TrEMBL record:
Reactions mediated catalytically: adenylyl-molybdopterin + molybdate = Mo-molybdopterin + AMP + H(+)
Family, per entry: Belongs to the MoeA family.
Pathway participation: Cofactor biosynthesis; molybdopterin biosynthesis
Function as written in the Swiss-Prot or TrEMBL entry: Catalyzes the insertion of molybdate into adenylated molybdopterin with the concomitant release of AMP.
Keyword Nucleotide-binding (UniProt): no
Segments forming domain MoaB/Mog: 206-345
Annotated protein name in UniProt: Molybdopterin molybdenumtransferase
Database matches in PANTHER family: GEPHYRIN (PTHR10192:SF5), MOLYBDOPTERIN BIOSYNTHESIS PROTEIN (PTHR10192)
Record region (Disordered): 1-26
Domain of life where this protein originates: Bacteria
Amino acid sequence: MTDNSNDAPVAAGPEPAPGSRRSGRPALRPVAEQLARVLDTIGTIAPIELALLDAQGLLLAEEVHADAPLPGFDNAAMDGYAVRAVDLRQATEDHPVVLPVVGDVMAGARSMSGMGPGLCMRIMTGAAIPPGADAVIPLEDTDRGVARVAIHRPIRTGECVRRTGEDLPAGALALGQGAILGPQQIALLAAVGHDRVLVQPRPRVVVISTGSELVDVGRRAGFGEVSDSNSYMLAAAARDAGADAYRVGIIPDDHARLLDVLDSQLLRADVIITSGGVSMGTADIVKEALSQIGTVEFTTVAMQPGSPQGFGTLGHEKTPIFCLPGNPAAALVSFEVFARPAIRKLLGKRTVQRQTVEATALERMESPDGKRQYRRGLLHREPDGRYSVSLIGGHGSHLIAAMAASNCLVVLNEDVTEVSPGSRVTVQPLMLAQR
């Protein structure tokens, strides 16, 4: 795999405006235009039914109603004694009311006897209120008697009682379509008796690294060889975006082999991501192979790193394919800018792009005119709650250690050529360190 993406810094100077040409070279496509093309192409995935825990983090694809009231019966909110409020009207600390205890009501009891006037029953939290009782006096307001109990205060009707249907009445909407299934929502679905739900599934993302120079991780790279870090990085990034990701290994610079592998992966892929082979070198087989079958458009985007981009669809199902540059930083930036929003759209998310924050630049920053630059940075939270940011590493898109030390991308727009220390810049957090 040859990757000739020009990610080195260039002198600030006039660049062709979008839509213009210079020296016969095609104009650079704006980032926003390329992203719009991607998102316009991305469709939807049919909902599937999953078990509750498998559905965690996904969007509900149906409305769920309570088939029965929640709670399903009046029950005790505290450990104490089931009583009639009228029997305790005269109770005080100095002159408690003493009632006979005629039984125990345990949580989970399927049947019980009732109680008459002037009597009470010991009751556990969650146990059904026995017939004849209308309140629960907590243990701490009594002497905790077994055969007889002294109660030191009056009580209101309904006190410490969870009423039938007070959480949800029968037939009420429990969760609407599009709800995100977090732990609380999973609990509610279980409470209303749904062990399986219809959800928008996780996209299946297949990740392929190309290049005859690549070797599998675990094997020591020899002279001229490079460990395949991209497939691990992109698979992890896809999972972080919410997808199920699969690595299919390394494809050497072999046109026919690449097409065979792509064809074999179409049955299980909702998205395919390749890295490498998209520039202008003689061994850039991804661009060569896919350009010939006319399914993928290769273009130069006005961004740095990650200028060479390929995107299109494959097969009868029109599976989206992203052909990203091979340099690690360029591949990750390209994923963040184009592939991650596509995955989020397939998940049904309303917000497909990461939220950005404004931060104070702690150092001088430069960017080429006419290109949107994404610099690796370290985002800090200041004592006053505001953000500041410093750069990590140089411009080179091969700097993996610098990439690993960063937690954000500093976004310098196309019309920005220089940022002075103390100026405000746009930052896209990737991972805020938790200490």
